Each structure stands twice: as C-alpha cells, then as structure tokens.
Amino acid sequence: MAAKPTKNTLMFYPWHHFVLLPAALILAIYGVRRYLTVAGDDSEISRLWFTVAALAVVGLGVLLMLRQHYALTLQDRLLRLEVRQRYFEVTGQSLRPLESQLKLGQILALRFAGDAELAELTQAAIRENLSSKDIQARIKDFHFDDMRV
Questions:
Q1: TM spans, by residue (predicted)?
Q2: Contact 114/143 with Cβ under 8 angstroms?
Q3: What pTM value is reported for the model?
C-alpha cells in the first residue's frame, strides 16, 4: 500500500468564496434578524422578512451544495479518463468498449488498483458484476487516492 502524502492544499475560487458566499451569508443573517424583530406580527412586513430570510437561507444552502456537486462531477470525469489512460497504457487496448458494461462506481474503484492487476480486475468486475467494495477488497497493490475533494 502506498504511503499517504501529508500535504494538504486549500484551493479558493475568489468570486465564490469571497463574494457570493459572504454576501449570501450576510443576507441570510440580516434577513433572519429582521424577521425575528417582527415575528409574531400578522403584518405584510413580517411576511416580507420571512420570505427574504427563507430565500436567503435556501440560496446559501444551494450555493454550498452546488459547489461540492460540481467539484465531484468534474472529479468523476477526470478519474474516468485516468482509468481509461492507465488501462490503455497497461493493455494497449481502449477501455471504451468495456465501459458500457461497467458502472461509474466500479470504474472509480478500479483507480485504486496497481497497473499489474488493473486489466484482470476490470475483466472480473464485468464478468462477476463486482461492487466497488468487492473490487477494492480484491486489490493487492492498493494505491490510495487522497486528492479527492
């Protein structure tokens, strides 16, 4: 098993981290505070501040979830390409004809396999319909991936 690197790198996207998220957070806090000052009133201003606060909190949540979703989707695409490239380097054949028989989870699990066992595990995953956990359990030369967000 390969040693786990200890380097931890933080990446920031300025518009997201320093403009949109703080603005959404400030709007959510301000909206909730303003609503709490008029809460209990059955007035139009009370309903307005409740709506502003609710939309701001939901918007903040969506911003946080979308950022993570986009990062993971992109990483899945990159990992699929990495497995394709490694499979080609090891076997001299394209993985594309076999990909339709593999689920994304299986392909992502195959990335942990060493070069010597990648082709054999790929065939076993197709033949035996192995789950990603089963694939990982069969890996003898495990290459840990700690660069996933």
A1: 12-36, 48-66
A2: yes
A3: 0.61
